[in-house]
Amino acid sequence: MRIPSLILFCSVILLTPVFPFNAQTNGDSSRTANVDSLDFHLYVSNQSFALDTVDITVYIDDHLVLKRDFYVEIQHTWINFHYRLSNGQHTLRAVSIKGSSSVEKDFIFPKTCWAVVEFWYYPTLTGGAGPTPKQFSVDFMNTQPKFQ
């Protein structure tokens, strides 16, 4: 029986962490590790009401670590994923076919233990935001992010 990817990953919805027993460590669902032993934390969010569902694929050092659809829901929703990384420089790349966008950034681990990848798109002025082209933002930090 195949376990849905949402259960296989560790998720944060509306800033409330929910830690399942296992988290996927790479694109191979047969390899899992205990969440308590994982060091690098990746938060991913779709911040676009214009594309309420967007595909996001994330690679670390050209290894597929995440591929799924993200829903805007109430917009301020981040899903948390955990990975074990070796010390040193790494490259994070996020790609979206539907969002026609990609970004690539380097970071040093363990100096950076958290990353936030967000997809943005506002074709017209909406509230106080926009217009914003289809794009990703990627932020790395050495402390756990605090979302508002």
Class by SSE composition = mainly beta
Unreliable stretches covering 5 or more consecutive residues:
1-37
Kindly report the spatial arrangement of strands forming the biggest sheet.
8-5-11-12
Rounded mean pLDDT score:
78
* Strand coverage percent: over 45%
H and E order: HEEEEEEEEEEEE
Question: How many DSSP-defined strands?
Answer: 12
How many structural domains does the protein architecture include?
Answer: 1
> DSSP helix count?
1
Query: What composes the largest sheet?
Result: 4 strands, mixed
**N-C termini distance:** 38 Å
Structural account:
By secondary structure, this protein is mostly beta strands. The protein has one domain (5-141). Helices cover 3% and strands 53% of the residues. The chain contains one helix and twelve strands. The chain has one helix at residues 5-8; strands at 11-13, 16-18, 22-24, 32-34, 40-46, 53-60, 63-71, 79-83, 88-96, 101-109, 114-122, 132-141. The strands form four sheets. The chain has a four-stranded mixed β-sheet, with no helix packed on it. It has a four-stranded antiparallel β-sheet with strand order 7-6-9-10, with no helix packed on it. A hairpin with a 2-residue loop joins strand 1 (11-13) and strand 2 (16-18). The longest helix is centred in the N-terminal third of the chain and has 4 residues, at 5-8. Residues 1-37 have low confidence and may be disordered.
What is the structure about, briefly put?
With 148 residues, the protein is mainly β.
Features:
148 residues; mainly beta; four-stranded mixed beta sheet; four-stranded antiparallel beta sheet; 1 helix; 3% helix; globular; disordered N terminus
